[in-house]
Design brief:
The complex is a heterodimer.
Chain A lengths: L10 H21 L4 H7 L34 H6 L12 H5 L9 E6 L5 E4 H5 L5 E8 L4 E11 H8 L7 E6 L19 E5 H4 L5 E6 L2 E2 L9 E3 L12 E7 L6 H5 L23 E4 L6 E2 L7 H4 L13
Parallel strand pairs in A: 1-10, 4-11
Antiparallel strand pairs in A: 1-2, 3-4, 4-7, 5-6, 5-10, 7-8, 7-9, 11-12
Helix pairs in contact in A: 1-2
Chain B lengths: L2 H16 L2 H11 L7 H30 L5 H27 L12 H17 L1 H18 L3 H7 L1 H8 L1 H16 L5 H26 L10
Classes of the chains: A alpha+beta, B mainly alpha.
Amino acid sequence: MLLKKASDIPSSEITDKKLYLRRREFIQAAAVGAVGAAAGTLGVGMAEAATWPRVPIPNVQKASSPALTTTEKPNSYQDIATYNNFYEFGTDKGDPSQNAGGLKTKPWTVKVDGMVAKPGDYHLEDLIKPYALEDRVYRHRCVEASSLVIPWVGFPLASLLKTVGPTPAAKFVEFTTLMDPKQMPGQRTDVLRWPYVEALRLDEAMHPLTLLAVGIYGEFLPNQNGAPMRLVIPWKYGFKGAKSIVRITLTDKQPLNTWQQSAPEEYGFYANVNPAKDHPRWSQARERRIGEFFKRPTLLFNGYGDQVASLYAGMDLKKNY
Amino acid sequence: MTNDRRVRFILKPIVFVVALTPLAWMIWAGLNGQLTADPLKEITHETGDWTIRFIVATLAITPLRRLLGWNWLIKFRRMFGVYAFFYGTLHFLIYVIADRFAGLDFPDGYVAVSTARALAASIWEDIAKRPYITVGFFGWCCMIPLAVTSTVGWIRRMGGRNWQLLHRLIYATAIAGVVHYWWLVKADIRHPLIYGALVALLLGFRVVTTLQKARVPHPAVQVRA
């Protein structure tokens, strides 16, 4: 598949492509049996199933409170690990599981900086060590109207924040994803402004549901799911959950998150799940749970309203989308 | 065997069958769980992709004949056009079932007059409300008269000139198809850009040749489009 930007393509080459496009239709006859490269160029995902190491996490505990985990049936490991929005590894949902194999998650350093008492560069192991890792089954609602139920393993972001100590002036927490086009092929094209940045208000970040996840299904995160550590905020659209985090910054100014920077009329800072606030191009009233045919009604705050609605008391949710 | 017969009796049947392989692949992959975790979205996208590919292939026939002198290509133009309509219709039907029907409430069950009415209303609302659906539906509608009048009988009935005029609607379909694709992608506009460039090139070719014809009042050889 042509991966260059149009501006890079001389018109002479486009003519070639045209012939090429037609040629493929002929080639396809042969391709039915001997798929290989032809199928690859057609983008019909007949590539070999990607594999990745699956390592169990020791000493995972039950969710510390029943309110922090759902009893709904989780999606399969296969669905969760092969249906990903992680543009650093490609823009199709199947791309990350194919392309994330080159990401090196050991060693991994997380910089904590900005308005904190204890800034520093922390080895991931040291950063995680003080906290009990627990199972949290959360509903996950993608902004593109699909949803999954995911059994995460992680610890509350609040625990980490308490350790590093935000100063009284701190109001927001910003999360930055790794920037390395060598390991993340999607970053070689500028579909988004790299590195990927997401952010929360400090009170959202301190909420007990807000999780720093290091695993799914009791195992360390597959790279395509945001290894080695990612953010999970179950009442917000999935894109708020920054993946492969290398930096956590406390600040007093509201950061500009990547998708808002890319399309401000479509993606805001809050991105709270809200069936009454349509995306400009599609309805958010319903969602397709992966594996189901009929669409479910989407719930305000993804069904976590009892626990989080008070964070937004008095706020116009349609304006602050 | 003459060249003409070779095209007609060997190449044409082969291409006809080959053009069905994307559908065959989708069915096979669907039955074998190879269509990602969200197969409905995948087949929606796949059928859409094949629609625009066949539109581009159809539009490419005339320029290729002119530029390369491959006149036998004309024998594939109608086939590609009808396949564009075929995949476009599948694309539309999958949208109707997987997007609209699956998003309904069913107070009276799945099979009821109220369900049919609610489905029609839901499709219509969506077409009216969402620009990328509006333009995609428009592009598909433009292909309907072309598919209907694709037979030799209709060319005779309409007269070559009128028939040709009507079939320029494919230009509208091609532009609508590119716009439809462009408006629906999230941030990665590379694919719509490629199809946009191809359609611009192929339509641009026609503009240029038309202008050239207009400049030469008595062309020595009249080439029929």
